[in-house]
Design brief:
Length: about 675
């Protein structure tokens, strides 16, 4: 607590000093390129000219809506689903596909450390984000493993105009969230860079309340013991630096380094209250480090080069403590702590060349080596806890040709060498047709390929609450995806998009209960999903309307007997904003709706059909700029209807982490205030 308070004070003092020291002249914090996309492109491209349909979330949206964690921004997309786990964190899915099939990138480089096969996106700091680019459907040709369902590429802040700038960001929420951020940027001719830091603290309930557990009787007569307040306190500290050097007008080299430390407390129930009462607590600590070296350059006017070499790791430790309430003493290491360490080296080199006025070619090499070490990770021989490793080395080619100034065609392929699986050629075909200056159509036929993760292969996690084992006999997932998209954009006030898709995944990997409360990763024969998404944005004078809805029908061929039926999923997001130009004031309302969802779970060797009740989330925000945009004030309410839990019908067990007859959605209604200063 003393360290946290001291850091808060230093941040506030530095901000106040800056307000006094800087003069009135200012420029925008970073060069604003909201319409340029990088993901899966030969070179930076306007979104209307991109081969793929790309969804964008820019910095303004993050600030206006008081976004403190990445999942809050992604909830505004109807194609994206968010699942929160009090221990494992926040998982992102897309078009009914889970996080296993979604590649999470930062400036094009993947992250490691998937727990239960998914990345915890709440560990990705948002203070250094310039925009987020989202592409649905397989991008395995370019981004390899985990990109069979789509890509979320976080683009960080880079260039700036002034020789010295400071940005501070402070936010408080009534549910116990306090966030402070500070960024200092500097530039001198060809050299520029920044350093930044962030403190995030979530502490909603008193510790005594977090020790209250309720005993709930299920329909089958069994009982579950569950936390009355399941959201655990969490603290995150992150910091990093970005350094760039302009070698020439066409060549830029940069280094980006970032470290995040997270601590989460899981308080146990009060035991033996009459005599020397105690509680058995758990502490989870996560340390995530990311370092990347990037190069962007051009050889004359012919070849555009892009290269990245990155290292990232996740060190996760779980400790057990016994807390004695009368003496306030802690007996550490009640049980041996367990830890897992994931490390990944990744490299990619891409060259793009304009062959002629109509043709261009992109060629690339990628290499990835990932290792895992931990008490729950077995070696390939499955003898002792040791180091497991998988690697992938690949070459890919993308050839594009334009016919008659209206039709652009792309043929791409990737050949990958895998250390633990069969080598694979993954192809894709794309077409973009300009129907008119405002209308265009895109069509895609692509394969996706996902090899089992380290934990799916080598995990052995057995304790009093868990029995989860990996499976070295797992087969890779192979998917086929078909998409058709129509886009209308007059580049003034109207954007409209319709996307239809069909995806089939063979040998999908899921967690199966093979005996009572014993789970193992196994393949199922096939998973199919068919759906459509509609997006519409309309600007009318001071009004802005953004609508996004996604409807899917899916079916899984499960390993046990189950009715042959389709299941549906529907998500809707609606945003309405109004701006008073003369006041510098903006108001926005965002509504997220998720219809009732069917799902299947394995319980006692049988398939159980569950239904998750509908979800409604409503946010309202006000944003005010002052002093030539140097000061930005925001206030509002998140989850106005105080929607916290969604009932799960017809089941008593939800996955491997038991949550009873409901699923966590949100900690509850939260009022927030936010102050951003830039100088």
């Amino acid at each position: 607590m003393k360290l946290r308070s001291l850091t808060y004070g230093l941040l506030t003092l530095m901000t106040a000093t800056t307000l006094l020291a800087q003069d009135a002249d200012t420029a925008v914090w970073s060069i604003d390129l909201p319409d340029v996309v990088l993901t899966a492109q030969h070179r930076p491209t306007h979104y209307t000219e991109a081969m793929h349909h790309v969804e964008l979330i820019d910095r303004d949206l993050l600030d206006e809506r008081g976004v403190v964690q990445l999942q809050e921004a992604l909830r505004t997309l109807s194609s994206v689903s968010i699942t929160d786990d009090p221990i494992l964190g926040t998982e992102v899915g897309m078009r009914t596909l889970g996080g296993n099939n979604i590649a999470i990138l930062i400036d094009g480089a993947p992250l490691t450390g998937r727990l239960d096969g998914k990345l915890d996106i709440s560990q990705i700091p948002v203070q250094n984000i310039e925009r987020i680019e989202i592409i649905q459907g397989p991008l395995s040709v370019i981004y390899g493993n985990n990109a069979a369902g789509g890509v979320i590429n976080v683009i960080t802040k880079k260039l700036q105009r002034k020789s010295f700038e400071i940005l501070s960001d402070h936010q408080y929420e009534s549910i116990g969230i306090l966030q402070n951020q500070l960024r200092i940027g500097f530039a001198d001719k060809a050299f520029h860079g920044s350093i930044y830091g962030r403190i995030f603290d979530y502490d909603q309930y008193p510790i005594d309340s977090l020790r209250i557990f309720d005993r709930i009787e299920q329909d089958n007569g069994t009982f579950l013991t569950l936390n009355r307040y399941p959201w655990n306190p969490k603290q995150q500290y992150s910091g990093g630096t970005y350094l760039a050097y302009q070698l020439s007008q066409d060549d830029l080299i940069s280094v980006n380094a970032e470290h995040t430390f997270e601590e989460l407390q899981d308080y146990g129930v009060l035991r033996r209250p009459q005599f020397n009462p105690y509680s058995d607590d758990q502490v989870f600590q996560n340390r995530r480090t990311r370092v990347s070296l990037n190069y962007e350059g051009q050889s004359g006017n012919e070849i555009y080069w892009e290269g990245v070499l990155s290292y990232n790791d996740l060190h996760r430790v779980r400790s057990y403590n016994r807390f004695f309430h009368e003496t306030q003493e802690i007996q550490p290491e009640l049980l041996p702590s367990d830890s897992s360490v994931f490390r990944q080296w990744f490299g990619r080199l891409v060259a793009s060349r304009q062959l002629s006025d109509k043709s261009k070619l992109m060629m690339g090499l990628t290499s990835s080596i990932e290792t895992a070490r931990g008490d729950n990770i077995l070696s390939e021989e499955r003898k002792d806890s040791s180091v497991a490793q998988i690697s992938e080395h690949a070459v890919f080619v993308d050839f594009r040709h334009e016919f008659a100034d209206r039709l652009e065609f792309s043929a791409a392929g990737r050949y990958a060498l895998h250390s633990a699986n069969t080598n694979r050629l993954t192809p894709s075909l794309m077409m973009r047709y300009r129907l008119s200056p405002k209308w265009q159509a895109r069509a895609t036929i692509a394969q996706g390929y996902r090899t089992p993760s380290l934990k799916e292969l080598y995990l052995e996690f057995i304790d009093i609450n868990h029995f989860v084992v990996g499976n070295q006999a797992l087969r890779p997932e192979l998917s086929a995806d078909y998409q058709l998209t129509f886009d209308f954009d007059n580049r003034q006030d109207t954007r409209l998009s319709f996307n239809a898709y069909h995806t089939r995944i063979q040998d999908q990997i899921i967690l199966v209960e093979f005996e009572n409360l014993k789970f193992q990763y196994r393949n199922i024969d096939e998973y199919r999903v068919t759906g459509a998404q509609v997006q519409w944005q309309q600007d009318l004078k001071n009004w802005s309307f953004i609508h996004s809805s996604n409807f899917s029908l899916w079916k899984a061929d499960l390993p046990f007997t189950v009715e042959d039926e389709l299941n549906s999923s529907f998500n809707l997001n609606q945003n309405i904003a109004y701006t008073w130009d003369n006041l510098g004031l903006n108001a926005n309302v965002n509504y997220r709706f998720t219809a009732a969802q069917n799902n299947f779970l394995f319980e006692n060797g049988e398939v159980v059909n569950t239904i998750l009740d509908p979800i409604h989330l409503l946010d309202i925000g006000l944003n005010k700029t002052l002093w030539n945009d140097k000061i930005q004030l925001s206030a509002g309410v998140k989850n106005l209807a105080d929607f916290q839990l969604a009932n799960v019908q017809n089941t008593s067990v939800v996955g491997n982490h038991v949550m009873g007859s409901s699923r966590l959605i949100s900690p509850g209604r939260s009022f927030f205030v936010k102050l951003i200063t830039s100088w």
